[in-house]
Amino acid sequence: MSNETNFKDSNDYIVWLEKSIADEYFNYYEYLEFKNLNPIGSGSYGNVIRVNWKNTDNFFALKIFNNDKITLKGVINEVLLYI
Ligand SMILES: Nc1ncnc2c1ncn2[C@@H]1O[C@H](COP(=O)(O)OP(=O)(O)OP(=O)(O)O)[C@@H](O)[C@H]1O
């Protein structure tokens, strides 16, 4: 997997994400699986909410990203730093 993306079109980032999920580089969770949503902050890429996953008592930070090319590129390139 390349360690940086630089696509021309915003949709290319969506396609890259969908392929990464299909190839099982990333886990996929349905939004409906998250319960007890509470806002906890926001950053340059979007909002962050505290959630429970399914019926667990564990808390997770769920990041909701703005759907634009600059955000998608930033998020994906940040994720690639950890792969
Ligand atoms: N894992 C987490 N646990 C608890 N709170 C979190 C977590 N991740 C983010 N937050 C909260 O959400 C805010 C925004 O986080 P986010 O990572 O989106 O942006 P940032 O790193 O603070 O800023 P930027 O996006 O500008 O670099 C944080 O400042 C923090 O208050």
From TrEMBL:
One of its GO terms (molecular function) is protein kinase activity. InterPro entries: Kinase-like_dom_sf, Prot_kinase_dom, Protein_kinase_ATP_BS. Keywords: ATP-binding, Nucleotide-binding. This is Protein kinase domain-containing protein. ATP binds at residue 63. The keyword Nucleotide-binding applies. The keyword Transmembrane does not apply. Transmembrane segments: none annotated. Residues 34-83 form the Protein kinase domain.
